[in-house]
Please model this.
Amino acid sequence: QVQLVESGGGLVQPGGSLRLSCVASGSMSSISVMGWYRQALKQRDMVARITAGGSTNYADSVKGRFTISRDNAKNTVDLQMNSLKAEDTAVYYCGANKNSGWPNYWGQGTQVTVTS
Model:
């Protein structure tokens, strides 16, 4: 089992920045990919993912604004979010995969609200 705990959400004005952090614990040797996902209404979408080797991919809507980073020694994955827009408002979840595809494990989520 893997446990994920997110932090760093909050309220920010458009154009502002936030940094989300996720700390993982448990059987991390089985984890290949870690990432951030968000859910505004019913659908949960991938925001950014990073492999243990550091390869990343991003949703088109956040490219150039968000940066994902990972510290394998500390079992953390961060998401730096710049130039935030109202449409970035959502609950953000940290996810961890054993293989490619959808996460096997989820954090509890952290709310990000972008509003003037």
